[in-house]
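Q: A reviewer asked whether we had any structural model of the full assembly, not just the individual parts. We don't, so I'm hoping you can provide one. Inputs are below.
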Amino acid sequence: MWRNRKRDLMLICGVALVGALLPLGVPDFVRYLVVLVSIYGIAALGLNIFMGYCGQINLGSAGFFCIGAYLPTMLKVNYDVRFFIGFPLAVAFCALIAWLLSYPLLRLKGHAMAIGTLSFGMAVFLIAERFPSLTGGADGITVPPMVLFGEEVGDTFYYYLILVCFFLTYLVCYFLMSSRIGRALKAIRDDEDAALALGINISQYKTFAWVLNNALMGLAGALFAKQAGFLSPSTFALWTSISVLVMICVGGLGTNLGSVLGAAIMTLLPYILVSIQEYIMLTQGVILFSVLRFMPDGIVGTMPKLFRCNSRSKQVLIEQAEQAVAL
Amino acid sequence: MDSFLSNLVPIIIVGLSLGSLFGLVGLAYTVIINATQLVNFGQGDFAMVGVAVCWALISKLGLPLWVAFPLAVVAGGAMGFITNAIIVTPLLKKDVHPFYPILGTMSVGTIAAGAVGIFTGFYWMPIEHFLGNEPLKLGGIPMDTQGLLIIGTTVAIVTVYWYLLHKTRLGLALRATGFNREVSLLAGIQVGKMASLSFVISGMIAAIAGVLCAPFSAFTATDGLILGINGFIALIVGGWGNPYAAVLGGILVGMIRALIVGYVSSAHAELATFVVLMVVLTIKPQGLFAGFMMPKTMNTR
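A: Here is a predicted structure for the entire assembly that you could use as a starting point for your response.
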């Protein structure tokens, strides 16, 4: 267990180092892609806590993404509040709303929770679109430049800001999910009644996972606003919730690494297919379909099975032994 | 006050027709839920496929509506059959997260929407009003013929479905499958076939709803999702797993929406739908009409 952790941390540090050195020698376009992957990586990590580890359903994550993006922007435009104050405010506000919503939503189960969260996402989208005085309306709004110590913040600084946010998020998720809290969440996912019997406070842990999920969504949204430079409500329609969901399913539900891999694949895909823009929806559908149909455990869950034949044959032996015992 | 009253009747008609439409989609969801306990997130896309087929047959091949409409309904049924065969049944056989089959239906819907989108370039797929654009004057009040047609069709479909469900052996088998899968299997009901049949029926109803709705609003490849969401809201507001409650819920949602469009503003109408949904989910999560027309033993779930 501990050796695994050491290996994982080395890996994370290695990737972080590569990320940190990247701006020195690559074209701006690659940097831009790294930023996008990091933003969606944060979002996917957040959703994975609630859906992958806790086993609940959240189809309204785009709503929090939207709030996170709009709040600092509107504060800056209307009240000239600085971005560096607006960012934490956005995350805190998302957490607050999530906490308030947890009372009606987290009592629901399965399908009802799906439609409840989905309706929240749709409601936020509609507010963003239909109330121009509040959000700039359907025409969208330009995000003003970020200022630090009287100077406009450059791309390099922004790149490092996002990178730091991403790796902090990853580390938090990594340590949290291998801690007592993570084990409790997994227990709730696997069997709620059994978890209750073991003395796990289910509603408290669910609320925690839900609030953390949506706070991270807000963080991703806030970072996205500056990156996009222009916000329009159509960016935050239901489709955004679904594509983050597709990311964590492709990577593998319930694994931090999988979320990031899924985010990378699904974000980079449009740029590989950039010449055939119309095919993106079809492609995303086909990817989701194939992953669900042929490798339901996602990439991270399936890879070890493909490469380590030993463990598989070991598993077959165990199964045979179990059958023998049962007979 | 006078204008309030003179506006009221047309608004109620609009609300009823919109509500029947949502109710039909809600009914389509419920057909599948009753047989398999699954939510089909591709439902709206079934409707969209129906619209696309109808539009393509009329505008590309020049077929008349009364030929294209049944073919579109058949296409919707085929979509249902395919969805069940290629992803839902295989996933149910594996031991996966219970949300996966639902995601699977969503993936098929997305593929359908993407494919139709490539075919149409994500543009509108216009279909003419079935009975002409001229509103019907009844007692001096103009009424949209398409709206009246939707209301009539909904009543007809609900009646047929009720007959199928409660008066035939097939309906008994369908109900039994939903009530208890294992016992139905023991009783010799072909459970897998019943699930497949429910997907086909559901796809057909959704396609009917889609084609009826298409003359009202310009339908694009991605609009199926919105119709699907409204239908699902109807189902949740009405009552889980009760086909008649889904229609009633749809009518309630449609009425609220029409009244707000008529007297407040169209900008707030969709928002109001979600507010109603949130309120219902908070106060009465099992739905407002959960027990409506259902025997006592059926509504315990």
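A: Points you may want to mention in the reply: The interface with chain B takes residues 51, 55, 57, 104-105, 107-108, 110-112, 114-116, 118-120, 122-123, 126-127, 130-131, 238, 242, 245, 249, 253, 278-286, 288-289, 292-293, 296 of chain A (CB under 8 Å). The mean pLDDT of chain A is 82.
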